[in-house]
Every structure is written in structure tokens, then in C-alpha cells.
Design a protein that fits this description.
Elements: E1 2-11, E2 14-20, E3 25-29, H1 36-48, E4 67-75, E5 80-88, E6 91-96, E7 99-101, H2 104-107, E8 113-116, H3 128-142, H4 144-164, H5 171-210, E9 217-222, H6 231-252, E10 263-268, E11 271-272, H7 273-276, H8 279-301, E12 306-310, H9 318-327, E13 334-338, E14 353-359, E15 362-365
Parallel strand pairs: 3-13, 3-14, 8-12, 12-13
Antiparallel strand pairs: 1-2, 1-4, 4-5, 5-6, 6-7, 9-10, 10-11, 14-15
Helix pairs in contact: 3-4, 4-5, 5-6, 5-8
Bound molecules: adenosine-5'-triphosphate.
């Protein structure tokens, strides 16, 4: 799929940007703090309905304004689509072909983008919450069931926690909420398990091209109970786990077990990436994970997502830059932000290139 038109109205430092986009590679060049990331953020926002930089949508509204909208025309293998997201102080509204979309899960996946940005480098060393967010964001692009079930599980978890804080806890009601939470947890665990397995296979294929030294990348899924394909056994394990933690949860007035506590530990040759890998290796693993995501999306929806490279291209050495651009099929539309247009010389790029210059929230071709 590719983005053919983009409009940003009162979004960040853009008043009313309206651009038409070809396929191939788009280089967004400009000095610091001019609005390059803002454009990439807006494109990703269309894919995930969330910013990768802030949890607060109001931060995205242009200073002094009360609302913003992002409008886009998408071209897919067999059709064109129009998407819009509008945000004001009352909340967010999603539109597809000008019709309102009430469920986020109906909107996510209509347009897919994969981003690689400097903050991704924190993935390995940051808290488990960051890795869960990575898995949740990426997996949401692939599975509406995941989006819906995760939403249900998070609601049930909130409900359980709210209930645990009450003065008199009705244990029967607590058991009912726990049972429902276990059912949602099972679906989330299954999806997380399969996603990580497939992503790692794709990631390893690309990593081999980057470093042909036999390095093995693995990810350990630290789930709340050992994962099994046997549904009844998984249910039994979770039931036992929740029963064991019940007294502690009642005393602490919070749920101590569940998908909100899980972690995903990345390893390189059996050692933790966080403490063992060099910065260059971490960058290569991340790049391979992102490329892996591109191929996973293509496997599932038979269309490539858009790739967004924010401030990371310059961090890759020449071999990795070439490997990345030469290994991706021409159908993949790529947006790259840079402060130095020179770094694209000598790359021998096969895809058509469009160069944009960005200054103070104005984006112009050439
Ligand atoms: N809500 C907002 N309203 C107006 N301007 C904003 C808003 N949010 C951010 N900005 C401005 O956007 C600019 C930052 O843009 P952006 O992050 O896209 O920079 P960039 O060109 O990617 O820079 P760098 O090369 O340093 O990463 C800053 O000047 C910032 O003040």
C-alpha cells in the first residue's frame, strides 16, 4: 500500500500541509526542529491512531488551535481508500470514506506503517512496559482479535483492581471477573506467542544479510504462566496462578499476575541483548525486527506497509544502508528524515526518489 495524498491541518507545527506523494523513496530533509518527525509521526498515527511520542492527543494540536485533522488517500493493491482522524478537546473521531468509524479495531490495519526511530534503541534496556508496548503496537497492526481482546483484558483488569480496592470484597464476584480475565488472557498469550515466533523467524532472515557471522537472535517470552497450545492446560495454569496470588492481591489491593506483567527478553547468541550487544548490534537487530514486521504484514494482508525511518538512516553504516534499500521490494514506499542530504549519494538506489525540504512547518518538493 502507499500513501498518495496527505493533509495535516493544525497538526503540530503545520497549519495546512497538503501534498501528493508518488511511490518510491521520499527524503524529508531539513534542519533540526523544522517538522520532519511531525510528518512521519502523523503517517504512523494514521496506522496506529496513537502518537509514538506522546500519550496525550492534545499535544498534537497546533499551539493556539483547538483541533487538528489528518486526512490521507491510500492506494492498495485493488482499491483506493480515504482515511481521516480528527481530534479536539472532546476526543478523537475516525473516518473511512468520510463515514465515521466507531471501533478503533475497524480502523487499525486499514493503513499500515512501520517506523524505526531513535527511541526504539531503548527497547532492550527500558522497562518491560516499553517492550509490551512494542509488541502491542506491532501486533495490533496484524490482528483485530488482538486489539479487541487486549481492550477487553485491560478493562477487566481495571475492574478487578477497582474491586480489590473496595472495603468489602465479594469473593464470588471477584472469581467471576478473574475467570473472564483468564479467558481474555489466554487469547492475548496465544497471539503474543505466535507473533514473537513468526517475527523472530523473519527478523533472523534479514539479520543474516546484515551480519553473516552465524549470530543467533532469540526472544524469550516471559509469560505469566508457561505457555502451552493445550487450551485447558493453559486455563488450569492461569487459574492456579490466580488462586495462589488471590490472598496477596486482596492484601495489596491490586492484581499482581497477568499480561500486564509480562516481558520479552531479546537474546543474541544466548545472552541478553540489553547487557551484551554493542550499540551497532542493537541497531542491526532493531532494523531486522522492523524489516521482519514489513514481511509479516505482507504475509498476512498481501500488501506491504509504508516504512518510516526517522533520524536513523545516518546512524547506519554504508553497508547496512545499501542492504536495507536494496533488499526491500520496490513496492515499499519509504519515508526517510535527514538533516544531511549528502548521505544519499553513492547509494545506487533503484527506487524513484522524491526530495522534500522542510523548514518551519512548510514542506516543499525539491
Ligand atoms: N503542538 C505543537 N504546536 C506547534 N508546534 C509544535 C507542536 N508540537 C511540536 N511543535 C514544534 O515542532 C517542531 C519539532 O518538529 P519535529 O520534531 O518534526 O522536528 P524535526 O524536523 O524532526 O527535527 P530533528 O531533526 O531535530 O529531529 C519544534 O519546533 C516544536 O516546537
Amino acid at each position: 500500500m502507499r500513501l498518495t495524498k496527505l493533509r495535516l491541518h493544525d497538526y503540530r507545527n503545520y497549519e495546512d500541509l497538503q501534498i501528493t506523494l508518488k511511490n518510491g523513496i521520499h527524503i524529508l530533509s531539513g534542519k533540526n526542529a523544522q517538522g520532519k518527525t511531525n510528518v512521519l509521526e502523523a503517517i504512523l498515527y494514521l496506522s496506529t491512531t496513537r502518537s509514538h511520542r506522546t500519550a496525550c492527543d492534545e499535544d498534537l494540536i497546533k499551539e493556539g488551535k483547538e483541533a487538528f485533522f489528518i486526512k490521507a488517500e491510500i492506494e492498495k493493491t485493488n482499491r483506493k481508500e480515504e482515511l481521516q482522524i480528527s481530534v479536539n478537546e472532546r476526543g478523537k473521531n475516525l473516518f473511512m470514506y468520510k463515514n465515521p468509524v466507531s471501533k478503533v479495531s475497524d480502523f487499525i490495519g486499514e493503513f499500515n506503517a512501520v517506523m524505526f526511530c531513535p527511541d526504539d534503541m531503548m527497547l532492550f534496556n527500558a522497562s518491560p512496559r516499553v517492550r509490551r508496548r512494542f509488541v502491542d503496537m506491532e501486533l495490533s497492526k496484524l490482528s483485530k482479535t488482538y486489539v479487541n481482546t487486549l481492550f477487553v483484558a485491560q478493562k477487566l483488569l481495571k475492574e478487578r483492581n477497582r474491586y480489590l480496592k473496595q472495603e468489602h470484597v465479594n469473593k464470588e464476584y471477584l472469581d467471576i471477573v478473574t475467570m473472564q480475565l483468564i479467558e481474555a488472557t489466554m487469547v492475548v498469550m496465544k497471539q503474543r506467542h505466535h507473533f514473537l515466533k513468526q517475527l523472530l523467524t523473519k527478523c533472523a532472515q534479514f539479520y543474516k544479510r546484515l551480519s553473516n557471522d552465524g549470530t543467533q537472535i532469540e526472544v524469550i517470552y516471559e509469560s505469566c504462566v508457561p505457555y502451552t497450545e493445550d487450551e485447558q492446560l493453559l486455563r488450569d495454569r492461569l487459574t492456579e496462578k490466580y488462586e495462589k496470588s488471590r490472598e496477596r492481591d486482596l492484601a495489596m489491593r491490586v492484581t499482581s499476575v497477568g499480561i500486564h506483567k509480562e516481558d520479552f527478553i531479546f537474546q543474541i547468541n544466548g545472552r541478553e541483548v540489553a547487557t551484551y550487544a554493542s550499540q551497532g548490534q542493537k541497531r542491526s537487530i532493531l532494523l531486522a525486527l522492523k524489516v521482519g514486521m514489513i514481511y509479516m504484514i505482507e504475509d498476512i494482508i498481501h500488501d506491504y506497509p509504508v516504512l518510516l525511518l526517522d533520524d536513523v538512516f545516518s546512524e547506519l553504516d554504508m553497508d547496512r544502508r545499501k542492504e536495507l534499500l536494496h533488499s526491500l521490494p520496490n513496492e515499499v514506499q519509504i519515508f526517510i528524515s535527514t538533516t544531511d542530504i549528502e548521505e544519499f549519494k553513492h547509494l545506487d538506489i533503484h527506487q524513484p526518489i522524491t526530495i522534500w525540504s522542510i523548514a518551519s512547518g512548510v514542506m516543499k518538493q525539491g
